Amino acid sequence: MGNTVRKPIKSKKKNINEELDGDVEEEKNTRAATPEKFNNYDWQIIETIKRDLQETPELFVLNNVLMGFMFFKNYKKDMEEVSSSRKESESGLLVPDSVLEKVSENVKFRPFHGPKKHQLEPIMDKRLFVFNDDVEVLGITDDCDAKSTKAAVRIEESPRKGFVKLREINCKPPPMEEYIPFAVSNSESESNSRSSSTDSETQSIYGSMTDLKTPQPIEIINYLETHAKNTIPASCITYRRVKKTPSEIDLEGRCITDITEDDWYHTVSYFSSRSFMLHFQNYMFPNQTGSSLGFSEDEIRQSKSVPGKIFCSKNGTPHEVIPALKCNWPSDQTLGFIMKGEKDGDMRRRRIFPTQSMINEIRNMACALVPRGYFKRHGERLNSDIEWEIMFPQAERYLESYMSHAQIKCYLFLLAIHKTYIEPKTLKQGLLPEHIRCFMFWECESNYSDWPEHRLGTKLYNVVENLYQRLAKGELQDYFVKEKNLFQNIQRRYLRLAQRVLHDILETPFVGCFKVLRNLRYMDGKSFYPPLELDKIYQILVGNKKENTSEEVKTIGIADMNQLDVLELKWKQAQEIKKKEDLKKLEESRKDSEDSIDMDWMCEKKLEILKKQSLLSHFIGFFIDLATKSSHISTKKQTLLYFKQARYLTRILKEEKHFTEEADEFLSIINSKEKECIKEFKEAPIKTVTFAMNDSPVIVNSDNGVRSDVTQENNTMKVNLKVY
């Protein structure tokens, strides 16, 4: 690898290596090379792959399968489009999952069995944040704009991190007959008996936490008393008795018997999250917002809701409509996140996620206040009707755009596991995609560089194991509000259910992931990549040969090569016959069987020589086809990566002395195909990028895919790049 030169770059620009979609390991792994001229790093990878094949063949298969499954046509180009679409629309609508939108163009989820086996869906429900423009949210110390025509509310701290209360600035007097409960301050216990009536009210509405989180049909209200624009509906205002501050209490000269409750408390009005959610789901969404978002009347009538979101399908695609208010970044609640960033010393030598420049940019982004209060169990939900949860959709989208190709793939596989095994059983409760997203941010931060493409199966196994441990502990910190535990208000039985699913996958990784991958369908077979032949791989692994085959193979030497060829041919013929018989039996039994996969199958600890040969030959041919297609629709770097993987596997096949001739044939094909593909890449025009000298550092590689010509003028630096 060529020498690297550190140069400054503007904070809003991605690291050039990141733009080219690669980790440090991948940079070393994309040079064209022949097996006779592998470098030290290549030999390390070959030894690692060989060890996986010998000791953990199931993970060897999973590594190659996950490496070969594609979600993007051209990852670099697609992520550039995602980065350029970060701004929300002028209508106050934010679609934060741009990465998932791009993936849905190429891959959809369709169950192999079950009632939805003919229905295509995205891997995750599409989220739509709908911001209310009638209300302006002010920070604790912000001044109110006298010229503003909007209704104004001020953020007030809540006893729980990650939640706030919204206090109306111009408080109107409450109705005389209305009972006004006492507010619970930050220093008071949630079990304050004076608020028991509020708790009883919430209990009577929701009954239990399960009822609260179970999607319920919306109750459409066709007529509602209108309210003026830029005002809060009267039904969304609730009142509390709040203790006065010492400076507000004036008891001088007062007789103790004349002091009343009004001397200690005053009445304030809050913007009720629960009332606003009911107003939105039963009136605004069915009569105004739903149709403007493109939902039909039938789709709106079939909608269901939980506090903070509405579930609605558009043309069969599930959506989550999330009403929200916009507010500035809450620095006081996100100090832990703000203090992240680049460290001094050796920490600067490895990739950091997120960098300080990323954090600085995120702090300028708006947040969303969602009408969903904290709700755990009886006695701990007294303020839930006036609490708003802080969410960070823009920051999440920004961080996703900085995830590497391997990290994004791992994230998508986790979402597919959730949609296959967990979502059908939990029905929008327990572990949710939002938890998986947060968990992946923590995983990226823990080691941003250790995500090798050629061992993605092993990495996914470790990630699933880490998620299993978090579920066991019942702890998952919010990525932005460190003191907030996302699992705290989830019933344990739903977490245990997700645990069991992950445990089964850890026991049989390939079988567990096989069922998931089978549900992911490529949308365009011609212009996209060749699909994995999962059934063929499964048959190679689980297929039974004749009982004496393995013994015969052990006694065959180099001199018996012809006998081995005959034996292999007979074995392949027997496999084909057995495969046809098995498929016929499966077709007959599928009517009575939910699935054709043996979920109890356990992979052998050591594969027989012919199984190794069949797997290696299959993956070599597949990666040659994958690289060839990549040369037409993606980057040179990615194309060389897959040719390199085919070379690695060919080298391992060649070390099995019985298959030297077959390996040489594969090598000849790889050399020929690689040469043709490289010719198809044309040099990109020179692009000059100017950096300020005091900006963040970036590594500019003089490696395949990038050529740099650096010149310095005054306090700026010009880098001429050729990327191809």
TrEMBL record:
It comes from Callosobruchus maculatus. Pfam families: Mab-21_C. Residues 185-204 have a biased composition (Low complexity). SMART domains: Mab-21 (SM01265). Residues 424-496 form the Mab-21-like HhH/H2TH-like domain. Residues 1-33, 185-209 are annotated as: Disordered. This is Mab-21-like HhH/H2TH-like domain-containing protein.
